[in-house]
Design brief:
single chain; 122 residues; mainly alpha; three-stranded antiparallel beta sheet; 57% helix
């Protein structure tokens, strides 16, 4: 059944959400943000190892897809999840990933060694 004209925009919004998630470093940025109420750009840079320009590009994608919001205070910029449910989504995705990888012990061990996803919002 094809999408109706009324349904199409809703599916496009959903698709854009996943486009925002479609890079490993953006996932890591979101995981870091899910662990704290807010994180400075300097901390994000330290934790990801990204050059400032590359981090800025990833943050711009996350902002464009409404996954993060920022506040400037003086010379510092702080980011937070736009909606705490993004942290829940990451936790569900991690559980799904672990279930998929269960058949492959080596990949499962590698996945378990990833940094924890902490949902500080609930």
């Amino acid at each position: 059944m094809p999408l109706s004209q009324k349904q199409r925009p809703l599916y496009e919004v959903k698709s854009n959400l996943f486009k925002g998630l479609a890079h490993p470093l953006r996932i890591r940025i979101l995981e870091l943000l899910s662990a704290s109420p807010e994180v400075s750009v300097a901390v994000l840079q330290d934790e990801t190892g990204l050059a400032k320009a590359h981090l800025s590009q990833h943050l711009a994608v996350l902002r464009r897809h409404r996954l993060v919001v920022s506040d400037r205070r003086g010379s510092h910029v702080y980011y937070r999840l736009a909606d705490p449910r993004a942290g829940e989504l990451l936790a569900v995705a991690r559980a799904l990933l672990l279930g998929i990888l269960e058949a492959d012990g080596a990949l499962l061990d590698d996945a378990r060694a990833l940094p924890d996803v902490v949902d500080a919002h609930g």
